[in-house]
Design brief:
The chain contains 32 helices and 13 strands. By secondary structure, it is of the alpha+beta class.
Length: 796
């Protein structure tokens, strides 16, 4: 044994275990996976419609699509840049499909539509919606041939002449027309252009899943590099879409996490230096913080397999609370044999710290069992981080600084300021009661308007980027993304049959002028039952020749010329049905994949359903209304209308409702734990009262200030209770002893300053999710300390 009372063996064991754990943790962190996908903050067990929506947000076609605009220069220059850029993106191999409406000199488009046109031509009788038994009667053939001949004088006439003998009924033009949206982008100089802006347009879908941010970043870097030569021509590249937002959000989160860590370290270092005037004390004080951050990240990695960027940002808040443990120890185990060093702190300070730790764990345990992976990550991170920081304080700091921090610097001045504050605060007890009641009344009157946050409040995407996204979407398509029709089936064919039934009803809305049109996978891939019906409609060669002779008698197109048509119909009678695999290698495959997909299973062992999406195009000058669409589809049990805004609001409402209950359970757990420890009703009331008033005043202040409160504000309130319990317990202990020296009061004030400063920093963050927590905890923690002193009954 030595003067510290710690044997060399015990010191070696403590430091060895801690260093080993830190090294192992850092290795795991270096190999960990980190994400910035905000869908992690969506429910883990949504309903059927919400599950479809979440699947699309995470891995749907929209999650892989970039909206591209080219501005500047003249129209010809923009068109040339559009064609060149599209070719470069296709050659890269990173994009599944690149569309810009461009047609080359040979009549086949740059996006593979020439080969797709040939494929459509080969399968036209199985795919054309016009193929019915009536179409191949003499009367039906006469009408179809006359319609085709009437088109020869139009701009499409040149292409029709090439296929007139083999497709006199015009099945291929009908198919192509069905694939064109009701309001497609305008074409000028052979490429898509905006109807409102001097802007060329492209739409590019990457091969990589939307959640693979590394591949998405590579695709976007290639896009920027491919466009560089055109910048010298005065052209500007505009890019938007979910992949861009996800990559930029990750970069922003990573940058802010580093900035917050650096700023927090500097601020905490400055405060601790002023308090201790000792570099050694400063370094030792940061050890619990570092331990807590490592423990939190490792716990999340082991529990979830990845760490969300917002969780890492939330980790910076540990600087404020974890350093409190070190401050309490370094000051309360101050130098001097008479003071008792670490032994005194272990007997007098550690029990209070330990109880504060357990109250924090009880509070955050509510988040761990939340049905939302994002919240669960925050809970696991907080619990593991606080445990790591506390254990480091308990076992490592006594080894390194058994007598606490020797320096005093401004510590004594802090102690005197704290003493003056504690003596004066009880005089404000009644005004505080009045403010609390006023806040409670205001919250009661406006309770319906308090929690106004939504899922968009979690997104760090700035408004300017959102406006650009809306502008490009309006340019590229008139499809209203707020409303979708979902056809569900146990297999792809069942989903396609349900989509066909829905399409029949939607055509009625189009004829009434309530819809401009709609997109359906069945226009490219009809169900096998429909294909079988069309194939059965095709007559034998003998019957077709007889019908053609009557249909063309006296017309400009003699039947003798239509031998290729008879041969094509005969071949189609034996042609195998078209399956999704037959679309591979054509430009149609991405379109079908975007609208026909397998969803996620509702539970373990359950079969995953298939879905067909039908996107609706609003009539000119009219907004889409879900009511007539739902009425038209009534009676189709496998078809539902998905109002995306309504579902997102429902998701967030459920999210908020569950989080409120989780927070309430956490608060109840804290009160129960405090009650078991204090074993006194008056003492329990004295400890809980400042916490409740701190939450009430913080919540009232933010709500009165017009801040739309959301889920992360709720997490912040829970953290106010966790942090504030330490201050309330200190004053409870003070009431029991009846006295406290300046150093002990200085430790309390310094701990609060570090907490308020660290959370004040993240309140300035540009990431809304982090800013929300800081906006709550910074004032809440300060109020918790002041109110603990205000309601204290002991004289200092």
């Amino acid at each position: 044994m030595n003067a510290t009372g710690l044997s060399l063996q015990r010191r070696a064991w403590a430091l060895g275990l801690w260093l080993s754990a830190m090294v192992l943790g850092l290795v795991l962190i270096a190999r960990g996976h980190y994400t910035a996908d905000l869908s992690a903050f969506l429910p883990a067990s949504p309903n059927a419609q919400q599950r479809v929506l979440i699947d699309q947000l995470q891995s749907g076609a929209a999650a892989r699509s970039l909206l591209i605009g080219i501005e500047g220069g003249d129209e010809a220059t923009r068109a040339a840049a559009s064609r060149s850029l599209a070719q470069a993106l296709r050659r890269s191999g990173l994009f599944e499909q690149v569309q810009n409406g461009a047609i080359d000199a040979q009549g086949s488009d740059d996006g593979g539509w020439g080969a797709t046109g040939r494929w459509l031509y080969q399968h036209r009788y199985l795919l054309s919606p016009a193929v019915t038994p009536e179409r191949f009667t003499a009367e039906g053939l006469r009408g179809a041939v006359e319609e085709t001949l009437s088109l020869l004088g139009t701009p499409a006439g040149h292409a029709l002449k090439a296929t007139l003998d083999s497709d006199p009924t015009g099945e291929l033009p009908l198919l192509v027309e069905a694939l064109i949206p009701a309001s497609a982008p305008r074409v000028a100089q052979g490429v898509w252009v905006s109807r409102e802006q001097p802007r060329a347009l492209l739409l590019a879908s990457s091969k990589a899943p939307g959640a693979d941010l590394d591949e998405q970043a590579a695709a976007q870097a290639l896009l920027a590099q491919a466009f560089q030569p055109f910048q010298a021509q005065g052209l500007r590249l505009l890019v938007s879409g979910p992949p861009l937002f996800a990559v930029h959000s990750r970069a922003q989160i990573e940058a802010e996490v580093k900035q917050l860590a650096i700023a927090g370290t500097l601020v905490m270092g400055g405060l601790l230096t002023l308090a201790f005037a000792s570099w050694r004390a400063l370094l030792v004080a940061f050890l619990p913080v570092a331990t807590g951050v490592v423990a939190g990240i490792v716990a999340v990695l082991l529990s979830f397999g990845s760490v969300h960027g917002i969780t890492l940002g939330f980790g910076s808040t540990l600087i404020g609370e974890a350093v409190d443990y070190a401050i309490y120890y370094l000051i309360q185990a101050r130098v001097g044999a008479e003071a008792g060093g670490w032994r005194r702190w272990l007997a007098e300070g550690w029990p209070t710290v330990r109880l504060g730790l357990w109250t924090s764990i009880c509070g955050f345990a509510a988040l761990v069992f939340s049905g939302f992976p994002g919240l669960a990550q925050l809970g696991v991170f907080s619990i593991a981080g606080l445990l790591g920081a506390a254990l480091c304080t308990r076992w490592v700091l006594p080894v390194l600084m058994p007598w606490g921090a020797a320096g005093s610097a401004l510590r004594r001045q802090l102690g005197r300021v704290a003493r003056l504050g504690v003596r004066g605060l009880p005089k404000l007890r009644w005004p505080v009661w009045g403010l609390g009641l006023l806040a409670a009344g205001w919250l009661a009157l406006h309770h319906d308007a308090i929690w106004r946050g939504d899922l968009a409040s979690l997104s760090p995407v700035p408004k300017a980027a959102q406006d650009l996204d809306a502008s490009l979407r309006q340019d590229l398509s008139a499809t209203d993304a707020r409303l979708l029709v979902i056809a569900q089936g146990d297999d792809p064919q069942a989903a396609l049959r349900a989509a066909e039934a829905a399409a029949v009803r939607l055509e009625g809305l189009v004829s009434q002028g309530l819809l401009a049109g709609f997109e359906s996978p069945t226009r490219v891939l009809p169900s096998l039952a429909t294909q079988a019906g069309r194939r059965a409609s095709l007559p034998s060669p003998e019957v077709l020749r007889a019908a053609l002779a009557k249909a063309t008698r006296g017309g400009p197109l003699p039947a003798a010329r239509l031998g290729p048509f008879v041969d094509a119909v005969a071949q189609a009678r034996a042609q195998p049905f078209v399956s999704p695999d037959d679309l591979r290698g054509t430009a149609l495959a991405p379109m079908v994949d975007a609208m026909l997909f397998r969803g996620s299973a509702a539970g373990e062992g359950a079969a995953a359903p298939w879905f067909a999406l039908l996107a609706l195009q609003p009539a000119a000058g009219r907004a889409l209304d879900a009511a007539p669409v739902a009425a038209a589809l009534k009676g189709l049990p496998q078809v539902q209308v998905l109002d995306i805004k309504q579902q997102l609001d429902s998701l967030y409402g459920r999210y908020l409702h569950e989080a409120l209950w989780q927070a309430l359970l956490g608060a109840v757990a804290v009160v129960v734990l405090l009650g078991l420890y204090l074993r006194s009703g008056p003492r329990l009331l004295a400890v809980c009262q400042p916490l409740a008033w701190a939450v009430l005043l913080t919540l009232g202040g933010l709500a009165a200030g017009g801040v739309p409160l959301g889920i992360l504000h709720l997490v912040g309130l829970l953290l106010v209770v966790a942090v504030g319990s330490n201050y309330a317990l200190f004053f409870d202990q003070l009431q029991a002893t009846g006295q406290a020296d300046d150093d002990t009061l200085a430790s309390l004030l310094l701990a609060n300053l570090t907490t308020v400063a660290s959370f004040g920093l993240i309140a300035l963050s540009k990431i809304p999710a982090l800013s929300a927590i800081g906006q709550v905890v910074a004032p809440g923690a300060l109020l918790a300390l002041l109110l603990s002193g205000c309601f204290a009954r002991a004289k200092v």
